[in-house]
Amino acid sequence: MQDVIRINQEDNVAVALRPIARGETLDIAGTMVTTLEDIPQGHKVAVKDIPQGGDVIKYGFRIGLTKEAVKKGQWVHVHNLKTGLGDLLTYEYQPTNPRVEPTEHAYFEGFRRTDGRAGVRNEIWIIPTVGCVNSIAKALEKEAQKLIGGSLEDVIAFSHPYGCSQMGDDQEHTRTVLADMIHHPNAAGVLVLGLGCENSNIPVLMDYIGEYDDQRVKFLQCQDVEDEQEAAMAILEELADYAKAFTREKIDASELVIGMKCGGSDGLSGITANPVVGAFSDLLISKGGTTILTEVPEMFGAETILMNRCETPELFDQTVNLINDFKNYFKSHNQTIYENPSPGNKKGGISTLEDKSLGCTQKSGSAPVKGVLAYGEPVKTKGLNLLSAPGNDLVAATALAVSGAQIVLFTTGRGTPFASPVPTVKISSNSALAGKKNNWIDFNAGRMVEDKSKAELAQELFDYVLEVASGRKVKAEEAGFHDMAIFKQGVTL
Predict the structure, then answer these.
(1) E-strand spans in 230-354?
(2) Angle at 160 between CA 158 and CA 161, to 5 degrees
């Protein structure tokens, strides 16, 4: 295993792959560096002197400016490094014209829905229209476990606190997300559970749902019946019979839509896990599939890389708006745009938002950007898509699901047990985490600095995703975890 890695030959810092003690002499890509202080694993060491106010280069790009002069061998982190980013920027389209060459077909065993779409799970979803009926939904989920069997894999209630006392776009987003969930192909059947007096009641929600299969989607308004539990169980029994008629069949991998997200990152995330996911994305796209990248605030500082990969000037303009709209969202709430990374990120070795963003965008691979999606907008274009959503893990992963992702890939250097409405694959950036939290982690990308190449791990991950799409449960599913979080932006009455 290497002791330290210099990611790009232009970099003036390198990343420690193990804790390095003060006074150790390291060969960093042919440059001998003696450390002047302890360097924690995942953190940066200067490979040359950097003057005060000088650019710190990592991934071949600037990740910030030094607060003071930094000597060769010093630890480079938040104490002597600051962001070099401004607020709203002007961008110029400089297309790089990337291309991913087609490769041979691949297949998974999935469920073909009556609308033609493919699902990777055969579940019944209980979708509350308002938080007031969350407890009823959870009680129904518990009672309905007796219905599981045959090809019906689970019954899940997705509770949330919204659907009433919201205004403007906030209420619109809730209705859009609920409608997207109702149409998701991983759900063989859906019970929409309303109260009756809420703003987003079932009659109102019908306009957002649009056309639907009345055998697949059923509705119950609790105020309209004497015993809502009894009435709902009768509906769930009907849905279970309907769901059990579906069986897995061979489906081309071009029909997979995979969401990509990172959280609890460390200094190895941009070196191992995120590049492996990026290579996976290119591989899936080469087979005609679709990937979605989100968490817009963690594109700040690396956004031009994505902008210049946009296939058309129109997509470039949409990506500029994607970035600037989120910056204006921060400003409208009087918040600092670049108040990121989190304490856990910093502990893991990430110092500035540029540092985090350049690592985060590694998940996009090298494919051209084919689509830019608003929050809650379903994906329409195959290939790499960018989605407007925040960095918050639960909100962003839910956003990926409601835009059509059947599976979410989640890279992490710190570990997390959370789930989303769809199978959420946890990918560790380091082997220590994979060993310590084996009950959370599904795939170890930390091997990239040990004994595996990026290409080998990307192929392993691709094969694993096909297994998950074919029914293999991820760790969060085995634990019974299923989460949903809607983006809250506006006023609560």
Answers:
(1) 249-252, 257-262, 290-293
(2) 160
The Cα 229–Cα 237 span in angstroms is 12
Q: Which CATH class, in words, describes the domain spanning 123-247?
A: alpha beta
Lookup: tokens for 464: 């694993």
* CATH code that applies to domain 4-82: 2.30.130.110
Burial class (CB in 10 A: 0-12, 13-18, 19+), 382: middle
Strands 217-221 and 187-194: parallel
How far apart CA 217 and CA 185 sit, in angstroms, is 12
> In this structure, what token pair is assigned to residue 381?
């274009």
Q: How far apart are CA 225 and CA 197, in angstroms?
A: 14
Please classify residue 5 by burial: count the beta carbons closer than 10 Å to its beta carbon, then call 0-12 exposed, 13-18 middle and 19+ buried.
middle
Give the pLDDT confidence of 279-320 residue by residue, as tens digits: 999 999 999 999 999 999 989 889 999 999 999 999 999 999
Strand order in the sheet with 249-252: 118-119, 107-112, 249-252
Burial of 172 (0-12, 13-18, 19+ CB in 10 A): middle
Summarised one tens digit per residue, pLDDT across range 309-356 is 999 999 999 999 999 999 899 888 888 776 566 787 888 888 888 888
- Is-contact 418 476, C-beta < 8 A? yes
Q: How far apart are CA 66 and CA 64, in angstroms?
A: 7
What Å distances lie between residue 123 and 182, 240, 422, CA to CA? Answer: 12, 9, 10
Give percent of the chain above pLDDT 90.
86
Residue 295: C-alpha distances to residues 71, 194, 307 (Å): 35, 31, 15
3-class SS of residue 409: strand
pLDDT at 444 over 70: yes
Q: Are the C-beta atoms of residues 427 and 273 closer than 8 Å to each other? A: yes
341 compared with 375, residue with greater pLDDT: 375
CB within 8 Å of 416: residues ≥ 6 apart: 263, 264, 393, 410, 426, 440
**Separation between Cα atoms, residue 50 and residue 66, nearest integer Å:** 8
Quick check: 235 and 126 in contact, CB under 8 A? no
Strand, helix or coil for residue 153: coil
* Range 349-377 average pLDDT: 93
Residue 232: which H helix or E strand, with range?
helix 228-243
> What is the residue extent of each domain of the chain?
4-82, 123-247, 253-478
What H or E segment, with its residue span, contains residue 370?
Answer: strand 369-373
CA proximity to 219, closest of 277, 346, 133: 133
